[in-house]
Write a structure and sequence with these properties.
The chain is mainly alpha-helical. The protein has 2 domains: 315 residues, Cytochrome Bc1 Complex, Chain C; 72 residues, no CATH class. It is 66% helix and 4% strand. It has 17 helices and 6 strands. The strands form 3 sheets. It has a two-stranded antiparallel sheet. α6 packs antiparallel against α9 and α13 crosses α14. The N and C termini lie far apart (59 Å). The structure holds protoporphyrin IX containing FE. Protoporphyrin IX containing FE (HEM) binds next to α3, α5, α6 and α9.
Length: 421
């Protein structure tokens, strides 16, 4: 009855027949992108709750007799509400899970070569989503305006300033002037709750539209090949109702796991960190794991490495915080265009059949993990030079050993002939 009412006005049946009958692959690795999507939904819901109670200002107010920034005071008050602290923790944990899911999803796409023609555009849209998600996390860091928030954000402020030629301009744009200043919190609040969610929402929509238009890659099996009748049919289950039921169930299962983690594992306990206190020195804390890659890289660069090019000054902050992340994203962006496949690809590739790309991916992954470890060299009592040697040895070994093994495996598989890398 309700459906009929809407259908007469919006032609819902046409939409249902056209889109909801599309197939979705049943392979479990295709759920990784969905976990990123689910986490984004949880972030929006919990973010709306927090948005009603948060005060985007660093002006001082009284909290239990002490003068603290009002942003900090509002977050302490959220933590004191029934369910307030849990919802704030669910928000933070969902951000971490979203970025982990994005990376796992990216790895699935990379190792199975699903970025190949015609999916290069969606690979680039995905990379943009990843970068913006990291930026979302960074802007969220400052909002509680604790001692930790201000220390962590000031590292990025000086990194932004270190960009040659345009650094001061970028820093002023992002931080609304100098940092810390009273204009920064409202600027970050605007980016965190408005600009970034709109961008993410639109880009996820574009990502999904391209996916529906181009159709999924499919897991390759003999059964699939036979069923697909020479590539004319897609194998999977319809989006409605089968996939929708599975996805909704997974969503609530993920929510249950996140709520469980949030209940028992504290995150960003701002009451322990306290409000910003310039005289008390910087707290010895590490950023969340996904920022540790850049943080670790910065720790390995000699502090006196500084030179100038065309009047622009290159400092360790420029190398670690600007050049390294930009080059890494560029390498990721070039992957589909350096791949040899020129024909449109329908099936996913078996990673074992791609010795060069698979071992390159493993080596690259180990390199990034070693940078995370480098973020802990102070507690591990390792000197930067020793850590650089460990990082190079581990990354090269993680590249060369799988490469040789995979070449051997493929030579045997092909009856003694060489295979293409
Ligand atoms: C907010 C972040 C993201 C969300 C919510 C998201 C969501 C999804 C979903 C739900 C799918 C369909 C299921 C699947 O194939 O796993 C998908 C497919 C795809 N995604 Fe993402 N994704 C994100 C980021 C990325 C990133 C970082 C990349 C790569 C750089 C990427 C590249 C792709 C490609 C190429 C496909 C098509 C795969 C195929 O046809 O097999 N996505 N994405």
């Amino acid at each position: 009855m309700i459906f009929k009412w809407f259908d007469e006005r919006l032609e819902l049946k046409k939409f249902k027949d056209k889109f909801l009958t599309k197939t979705f692959p049943t392979h479990p690795t295709f759920l990784l992108g969905e976990i990123a999507l689910f986490s984004f939904i949880t972030l929006l819901i919990t973010g709306i709750f927090l948005g009603f109670l948060y005060e985007p200002s660093s002006k001082f107010v009284s909290l239990f007799g002490a003068m603290v920034p009002s942003a900090y005071a509002s977050v302490v008050r959220i933590d004191l509400l029934p369910m307030g602290m849990i919802i704030r923790r669910i928000h933070h944990w969902s951000a971490m899970i979203m970025i982990a899911a994005i990376l796992a999803h990216l790895m699935r796409i990379y190792f199975t070569a699903s970025y190949r023609k015609p999916r290069e555009i969606n690979w680039l849209v995905g990379l943009t989503l990843w970068s913006i998600s990291m930026f979302a996390a960074f802007t969220g860091y400052l909002l509680p305006y604790s001692n930790f928030s201000v220390t962590a954000t000031s590292i990025v402020y000086y990194t932004a300033k270190s960009v040659p030629w345009v650094g001061n301009w970028i820093a002023r744009l992002l931080f609304a002037g100098d940092f810390p200043s009273d204009a920064t919190v409202p600027r970050f609040f605007f980016m965190h709750v408005m600009l970034i969610p709109i961008l993410l929402f639109s880009l996820i929509g574009l990502h999904m539209l391209i996916l529906v238009k181009q159709k999924h890659t499919e897991p390759l099996s003999n059964k699939n090949k036979k069923e697909a009748q020479g590539g004319k049919r897609l194998i999977g289950i319809p989006i409605w109702p089968e996939q929708a039921v599975i996805s909704i169930s997974y969503y609530f299962f993920l929510l249950f796991i996140v709520a469980l983690i949030a209940t028992y594992i504290p995150l960003n306990p701002i009451e322990t960190y306290g409000p910003p206190s310039p005289g008390a020195g910087t707290p010895a804390l590490r950023p969340d794991w996904y920022f540790l890659i850049v943080y670790g890289f910065l720790k390995l660069i000699p502090g006196n490495l500084s030179f100038s090019i065309f009047g622009g000054q290159i400092t360790p902050e420029t190398i670690g915080g600007v050049i390294f992340p930009t080059l890494s994203i560029l390498v990721f962006a070039l992957i589909p265009f350096l791949d040899r496949a020129k024909e449109p690809v329908k099936y996913i590739e078996n990673p074992l059949h791609r010795p060069f790309m698979t071992s390159f991916g493993i080596g690259g992954g180990v390199f990034l993990c070693m940078l995370v470890v480098a973020g802990y060299i102070d507690v591990l009592h390792i000197t930067p030079n020793t850590m650089i040697i460990y990082t190079i040895v581990a990354s090269v070994a993680a590249w060369v050993v799988p490469y040789l093994l995979l070449r051997l495996y493929n030579r045997k598989r092909n009856g003694g002939y060489n295979v293409k890398a």
